[in-house]
Design goal:
Homotetramer; each monomer provides an independent glycerol/water pore. Could also exist in other oligomeric states. InterPro entries: Aquaporin-like (IPR023271), Aquaporin_3 (IPR023275), MIP (IPR000425), MIP/Aquaporin (IPR050363), MIP_CS (IPR022357). This is Aquaporin-3. It holds the Pfam family MIP. By secondary structure, the chain is an all-alpha fold. The chain has a domain of 153 residues: Glycerol uptake facilitator protein. The chain contains nine helices and no strands. Helix 3 packs antiparallel against helix 8, helix 5 packs across helix 9 and helix 7 packs antiparallel against helix 8.
Length: 245
C-alpha cells in the first residue's frame, strides 16, 4: 500500500504538464532511438568487416528504427524526428512555424547524443578496426559510421539533387499514408508501413550519398565526429575515401 502511494506521488511530481516540453522530450527520445539503432547497425557492419552485417541490414535497421520512433512519440509530438518533415508540415499548415526551429534543434541534439552513445557502445571495435587512427578517408575510415559521405563520382550538384529527391519521396509517401482522405491503412499500422517506405527508398536511392534523408540525422553525428577526434575534415566534400558511401 505504501509503495503504491509512493509511486503515485512520484508520478505526480514527475509528470510534465507543459505541452511544448512534452513534445520536445518526445522528439528528443524518438530521435535518439532512431539514430542509435541506425548508427549502431552501421558500426556493426563496418567494424566487423561486414561479417556481421551488410548494406541491407543497415537499411532494414534504419527503417525499423523509424517505426520504433513513431511508436514512441507519434501520439505526443507526431514523431517528426526530421527537420525536413517538420518543414513540410509547416508548408501544408499542419505545424506552426514558430515550433520549427525548436524541433530542429531538439532533433539535432538527439542525434548528437545518439552518436555519442554509439561511439561508447562500439568504442573498442572502432579503435581496433581503425588501427588507432580516426580518419574520414582511406580503407579503414570510420567517419561513415556516423555521417553519410558521397561516392567518389558524385558532384555537389548531383548530391544535392539526390537528397532533395530522396527526402521528397519520403515526405510525399508519409503524407499520403497519413492522409485520412486517402485509402489509408489500419489504425496503428502506420509505423510499419512508413518503415517499408523508408526501406524501399534506402534500397533504391542510397548509392550516391548513403541516403540520410534527414538533416538532423547527418548534422548531429557529424558534429559529434568533429569534436570526438575526426576533425574538420568531416565537413568537407571528400573524394577518394576508399570505401565510399
Amino acid at each position: 500500500m505504501g509503495t503504491t502511494s509512493f509511486l503515485t506521488r512520484a508520478r505526480g511530481l514527475l509528470r510534465i504538464r507543459n505541452q511544448l516540453v512534452r513534445e520536445c522530450l518526445a522528439e528528443l527520445l524518438s530521435t535518439f532511438v532512431l539514430i542509435l539503432i541506425t548508427l549502431s547497425s552501421s558500426a556493426q557492419k563496418v567494424t566487423s568487416f561486414e561479417t556481421k552485417g551488410d548494406l541491407f541490414t543497415t537499411y532494414l535497421a534504419g527503417a525499423l528504427a523509424v517505426m520504433v520512433g513513431i511508436y514512441i512519440a507519434g501520439g505526443i509530438s507526431g514523431a517528426h524526428m526530421n527537420p525536413a518533415f517538420s518543414f513540410a508540415m509547416c508548408l501544408v499548415e499542419q505545424f506552426p512555424w514558430w515550433k520549427l526551429p525548436i524541433f530542429a534543434v531538439v532533433q539535432t541534439l538527439g542525434s548528437f547524443i545518439s552518436a555519442g552513445a554509439v561511439y561508447l557502445l562500439y568504442y573498442d571495435a572502432i579503435w581496433h578496426y581503425s588501427n588507432g587512427t580516426l580518419t574520414v578517408s582511406g580503407p579503414r575510415e570510420t567517419a561513415s559510421i556516423f555521417a553519410t559521405y558521397p561516392a567518389d563520382y558524385v558532384s555537389i550538384a548531383n548530391g544535392f539533387l539526390d537528397q532533395v529527391i530522396g527526402t521528397g519521396v519520403v515526405i510525399l509517401g508519409v503524407m499520403g499514408i497519413m492522409d485520412t482522405r486517402n485509402k489509408g491503412v489500419p489504425k496503428g499500422m502506420e509505423p510499419p508501413i512508413v518503415a517499408l517506405l523508408i526501406l524501399s527508398v534506402g534500397c533504391s536511392m542510397a548509392a550516391n550519398c548513403g541516403c540520410p534523408l534527414n538533416p538532423a540525422r547527418d548534422i548531429g553525428p557529424r558534429l559529434f565526429t568533429y569534436v570526438a577526434g575526426w576533425g574538420p575534415e568531416v565537413f568537407r566534400w571528400v573524394e577518394g575515401r576508399g570505401r565510399g558511401g
